[in-house]
Amino acid sequence: MQKGAIRVQTENIFPIIKKFLYSDHEIFIRELVSNAVDATQKLKTLASVGEFKGELGNIDIEVRLDKEKKTITIADHGVGMTAEEVDKYINQVAFSGAEEFLKKYKGQENGTNIIGHFGLGFYSSFMVSSKVEIFSRSWKDGAAAVRWECDGSPEYELEEVTKEERGTEIVMHINEESEEFLDEGRIRSILTKFCKFLPVPVKFEGQQLNNTTPAWTKKPSELTTEDYQNFYKELYPFAEAPLFWIHLNVDYPFSLTGILYFPKITKSYEIQKDKINLYSNQVYVTDEVKDIVPEFLMLLHGVIDSPDIPLNVSRSYLQGDPNVKKINAHITKKVADKLDEMFRNDRKGFEEKWESIGLFVKYGMMTDDKFMDKANKFLVLENVDGGTFYTREEYKAAAEALQTNKEGKLVILYATNPVQQDSYVQAAKNKGFVVVKMETLVDAAFISNIEAKWENVQFTRVDADIADNLIDKDENNNTVLTADQEGKLKEIFTAQVTQPNIKVELKGLNADAQPVIVTRPEFMRRMKDMASMGGGGMSWYAAMPD
Ligand code: ADP
Ligand code: MG
Predict the structure, then answer these.
(1) Which residue among 33, 212, 395, 515 is least crowded, i.e. fewest CB within 10 A of its CB?
(2) How confident is the model at residue 331 (pLDDT cuts 50, 70, 90)?
(3) CB of 460 shorter than 6 A to ligand 1
């Protein structure tokens, strides 16, 4: 038997790293600036434990562009590297110094806010460079400054040089295919995307581009309502003010911070997805937060930050990641708790926001049973006349005497269009029934879904044949139309007739004469509602389960 270690041929692996490390080449800026942040945070940690006794001085990170020389330089004043460290951390691909540092200084201030984990980020510079140089001087007393150079082949040069300032400069000689990056606008936009909230000042062309202490990194007790609103503006300068927000702050069993904002959703609201940004230690990662954020909350806005979500891995991996699952469940729980708290503490305020909240609550109840269990207490149904809201229990109390069917089920009567269905609504009200509004796009799917889950409840549209059955047939229930109702009815009929071969005659719309009432079987109507959903830019709804 023979045992041994697999050997990797650098000549073969290098091109693979260069080509496949990241599909997005612009990521190199994120990686190198993150390394500069790490180096600066490490120095702060060393200072806080007393190992580094010198002056921190200027710790800004500077990004420089030289169009003539075709170079991009990233300079920091962090820990720097000695020749041995360059050999250890740079020449050994996938030996992550960050990991090592973390183990040693875990629990110290700044010690765990280190971005790197993989030991590959630096090599992303070769995706865009024909040559990369490192100039570095370590914080350690008497350490000589070094210059390292590599053209992307597995050979490097390392020599002593003079460098006055502590820290590291990475100089990338941009290759021909990547000259698009030699543009101020491009660099600025990449920096704004990835570095906007980095914890160390990042400067480009003399200007600081980042807010080093964004709201989500602070304690909720340190923040006022205005602070939350201002941060929202910082994220989405043109958006309407948010309705309310949830500040996430977990240390264990995973680490997660963030602020999720509920946008105001009205009938004319244009669905905006991908408005939640994922960060890892204040470095922007992505706006694709599927799996991390529950599907029904994808319309929320804001930021979540978790160093426990892998930075550089594929989507399919994320799905199976245990931390991602836990974070998803945590967010659901937090949202349910917040809504429950709002409902209990300020019911009126809660009801006023229901038009917006209702969408999330209903979709959440359809897709997540744990959420449904909690939401059963705060889901409200609005009376067709508006202003009065019933929880399921309250509706039952108000309606069960008259609205229990032969099978003993509570019949919830609803109108999908209170104006069009007005004569039915009036008839039902005259009977003492309680009719609620179910007029939003999510409602048809919600009703089918929740009816199967709620025991002993049946939803019936106010103009359906079942509702008619509930109304005692022996009684004469002709409705007398007011002049106003008559006007409305005429309007509706006229608007509805679009096919030329259908002729509508309105007869005797006065006194106690009854206009024609057409009822359709409830089942057929639902099928049609379901089929007509999903168009007109509302494709989000089409994905909803029935
Ligand atoms: P990671 O950041 O995941 O550790 P990288 O490939 O990005 O991997 O970097 C490898 C190592 O090189 C780092 O862990 C660090 O020790 C060292 N390094 C990279 N950039 C710097 C820098 N600007 N200052 C000091 N050390 C650095
Ligand atoms: Mg790194």
Answers:
(1) 212
(2) very high
(3) no
